[in-house]
Amino acid sequence: MVLGAMCGRMGRSTFLFTLLTTFSGIVNSTYGSWKSSFHSNRVNNVEKPSSQPHIIFIMVDDQGFRDVGYHGSEIKTPTLDRLAAAGVKLENYYVQPLCSPSRSQLMTGRYQIHTGLQHSIIRPTQPNCLPLKNITLPQKLKNAGYSTHMVGKWHLGFYKRGCMPTQRGFDTFFGSLLGSGDYYSHYKCDSPGMCGYDLHEGEEAAWEQDHGIYSTIMYTQKAINILASHNPKRPIFLYLAYQAVHSPLQVPARYLKRYKSIPNLHRRKYAAMVSCLDEAVRNLTLALKQYGYYDNMVMVYSSDNGGQPMAGGSNWPLRGSKGTYWEGGIRAVGFVHSPLLVKKGTRSRALIHITDWYPTLVMLGEGTLDENQNLDGYDVWEAISEGRPSPRLDILHNIDPVYTKAKNGSWKAGYGIWNTAIQAALRVGDWKLLTGVPGYGDWIPPQTFSKLLLANRWHNERVNWDRGKSIWLFNITADPYERVDLSRRYPRVVKKMLFRLLRYNKTAVPCRYPPKDYRSNPQYNGGVWGPWYTNDDEDEDDNLLSYDLEQMKSWKKAKRRGKFNRKT
Fold it and tell me: What residue stretch is flagged as signal peptide (predicted)?
C-alpha cells in the first residue's frame, strides 16, 4: 500500500528511477566498504621482508694461504678477488690445522678441548661424532626463524642417526659424510675392504640425484636450486661446504687447459680445481642477486685449514702446512662480503678465530646466546664491519694429550709449569707459543716451476736446528713467518704463556677418540657409508666414546701387537 501510494503521487517512471538510484547507492557504499577492508587486509597479510640477514657460509677445503689471487698467487681467482676487494679481507684469521676440528669449532663456537675432539679428525670407522649435548649454529639460527640448509662435506661423524646433519639443526642436507672421496663417483675407501658410496640426500643415499657430476659443480647447482625455491623474504642460512680443493686431485679438463704453463702436475691440477671453485662462487653470487637475496645478505668465505704442498697447495711465505700448528697450517684465507658492511673495501688485522662465527652469526640473525653454553668465540661483527678492535685477545690453537710426544720434552724444559712433550699451541696478543711436536716445519715455495716431487726436497728451506727442541716462542706480528725463536730471550713471557696453557688445560674434557668399529663397514649397510649403531647400542655409547689417556695408550700398544679387537 505504501509503495502504491508513493507510485501514485510520483508517477511510475519517476518512482522506478528513484528506487534504482537508492539501491545503487547502497550497493556502491557496501562494495566500497568491502573493497577498502579487503585492500587493508591484503596489505596487512603481505609478507614483509625480514630484518634478519641471509647468511651464506662458504667453507672450502685445504685451500692454502697463498692460493688466492689477492695473496699473490699465479692461480686466477677473479671472483674471490672481486668479492674480497668489495668486502673485508681477514688477514689475521685463524682456523684449525685439520678438517673435523675446524668444522666442530664453527658448529659449536667452542675449542676442541671443550668438546673432546682435541685429537686428529673423526675417522669414518669410529663410533664418534660432534657431541650431541652441544647446541649447534644451525640449531640456534633455526630457533631464530631461519630456514637452514647444508650442501657439501659434513665430516663431523655419523655412526648413529642423531649425529647426522638433519639431526643437528639443518632442515635439509645434500652432500658427503666423510672427509674426502672421488669427485665424480662419490666413492671412498678408508682401507682395503672398507669402501662405500658417500653421497646423501637427508639421511639416505642419493642414488637418484647422482649423475656423475663433478662435486664442485653439483654442489653449486644444488645450492642455487635451494635459493630458487626459497622465499627471499624469509631468512635463510646456507652452509655450502665444498669438497674442493682437497685431494684426490680431480678436475674437468677445460679448467686444466688454463694452466699448461705449470710443469708440476700436482700444482697444475690443484690450480685448475681452484679456478673451478672460483667459477662456482661466481655462479652462486649471480643466483643470490637473481633471486633477491643479495641486498640483505652476509657471505663468509673461509678455508678449513692450510694447504697441503704434497697435493699442490701453497702457504708461502708462511711456515708449515696442513696438519701443523705453524702459521701455514692454521692461518687461513678468509673474507666477508656484504652490502650490510659499514666499511667496505678494507683489510682487517683484527684477531679472529673460527669459533667467533658462532656468536657473531647468531647475534646477526637476532638469535640468543645462553650463558651456560660457555662459548670460546666472540661476537666480532663490529671489528669486521666497522674496523673496531677485536674483543679477542688470545687463541688456544689446541692442547692434544694423545699426539706423539716430543722426545726432548720435559717438565724441566717447561719450568716445572708444563710438560713440553705435549703438543700445544697458544696465541696471546703478539706472542705465539708452541710445545711438543708442532708438525712439519719447512718453508715451501710454490711448486709452480718444478717437475720434481716434494719428496725430493727441491728448493725447500730445511730446518735442522729444531730437532732437539720442544718449546718455541715467536712474535707473530713482527715475525709472521716464524723465523726467529725467542723462547730463550724472553723466558718470562714463556712462563706466563705456560701458566695460561695450564689454566686452559684444567677446563679440558676427556679426549674422544675411540678405536675402529668394524660394523661401520659399508658392506653391512648396502654398500653405503652411513649410521651403523642401533637403538640397542645407545646404552653403551658413553662407555665406548670416553677414553682417557691411559686407555688410549693401552689400545695403541694392543694394536701394535696385533691383539686389537672392537671390545678392547
Answer: 1-29
